[in-house]
């Protein structure tokens, strides 16, 4: 269900609301987490309800992944920079930028300027500036310059700061839930590592 909504938004260029995105993530990433937990509980004797914690972890993991895909040099080296733009998917920071920025339409519908380098086919317009009527999201571009331009739009809209704050709040909820369940040192260490405040993991 979650994956289907993700693809539907992508293929129809429909930007979801934040609430719709969180619901999708809960059914996508969170669904995988819940499945893993349920498989473990079948083999165990512990009947503690950890679904709330698992749901929080699923949302945290996906939004952090969205953030890292744009902001982390380590992530870019391993998986590529801003691959969500290449796939045409609406990530958490992009959704916020589209919904809260005067420049939103540069991501989904506006004339924007790109630099063409056509060495052999059209030498007369080599390195010329051309206006193209194609929105960035629909392009599914691999052009690093266009992706960096899109990332700068997200930055200017304050969406990175908003995402960091959202992740910090989720992290706080996760830690409280771990404590409510009696505490778990290993799980807390994982949260420490994934924390947005842990610059060594970014």
TrEMBL record:
InterPro entries: Isoprenoid_synthase_dom_sf, Polyprenyl_synt, Polyprenyl_synt_CS. SUPFAM superfamilies: Terpenoid synthases. PROSITE patterns: POLYPRENYL_SYNTHASE_2 (PS00444). Pfam families: polyprenyl_synt. Keywords: Magnesium, Metal-binding. GO terms for molecular function: metal ion binding; prenyltransferase activity. One of its GO terms (biological process) is isoprenoid biosynthetic process. This is Geranylgeranyl pyrophosphate synthase. It comes from Smittium culicis.
């Amino acid at each position: 269900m979650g994956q289907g909504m993700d693809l539907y938004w992508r293929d129809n260029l429909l930007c979801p609301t934040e609430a719709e995105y969180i619901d999708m993530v809960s059914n996508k990433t969170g669904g995988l987490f819940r499945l893993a937990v349920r498989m473990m509980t079948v083999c165990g004797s512990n009947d503690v309800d950890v679904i709330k914690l698992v749901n929080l972890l699923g949302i945290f993991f996906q939004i952090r992944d969205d953030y890292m895909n744009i902001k982390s040099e380590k992530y870019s080296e391993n998986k590529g920079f801003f691959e969500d733009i290449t796939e045409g998917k609406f990530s958490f920071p992009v959704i916020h930028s589209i919904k809260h920025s005067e420049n939103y339409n540069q991501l989904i519908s506006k004339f924007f300027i790109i630099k063409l380098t056509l060495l052999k086919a059209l030498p007369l317009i080599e390195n010329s500036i051309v206006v193209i009527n194609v929105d960035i999201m629909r392009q599914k571009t691999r052009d690093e310059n266009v992706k960096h331009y899109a990332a700068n739009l997200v930055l200017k809209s304050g969406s990175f700061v908003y995402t960091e704050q959202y992740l910090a709040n989720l992290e706080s909820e996760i830690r409280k839930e771990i404590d409510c369940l009696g505490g778990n040192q290993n799980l807390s260490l994982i949260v420490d590592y994934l924390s947005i405040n842990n610059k060594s993991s970014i």
